[in-house]
Amino acid sequence: MADATDDRLRLLIERIERLEEEKKGIADDIRDVYAEAKAVGYDPKIMRQVVRLRKMEPNDRSEMEMVLDTYKAALGLE
C-alpha cells in the first residue's frame, strides 16, 4: 500500500514539474510577443491592460470603469 502511495505521489509531483516547465515556456513566449510588439511601436503596458480587460465579463468591466471614473473625478483627474 505504501509503495503504491509513494508511486502515486512521485507521479503527481513529476506532472506538476512538467506543467511548471510548460508554464515557464509559455511565459517566455508571451514575453517575446510583447517585446515584438514594443519593437514595432506598441506599448506593452497598455497591451497588458487591454488583455486583462478582455478577460473580464462585460458587466464587471463596466462596473470597474464606473468606479474608476468616480475615483478620478474625486481626485480631480478629469
Automatic annotation (TrEMBL):
Q: What is this protein called?
A: DUF2312 domain-containing protein
Superkingdom of the source? Bacteria
Among the GO molecular function terms of this UniProt record, one is: DNA binding
Point out the coiled-coil segments of this chain: 2-36
Q: Which NCBIfam families match?
A: PRK13694.1 (NF010247)
Question: What are the record keywords, sorted?
Answer: Coiled coil
Q: Where is the GapR-like DNA-binding domain?
A: 6-76
Q: Name one Pfam family in it.
A: GapR_DNA-bd
Stretches that traverse the bilayer: none
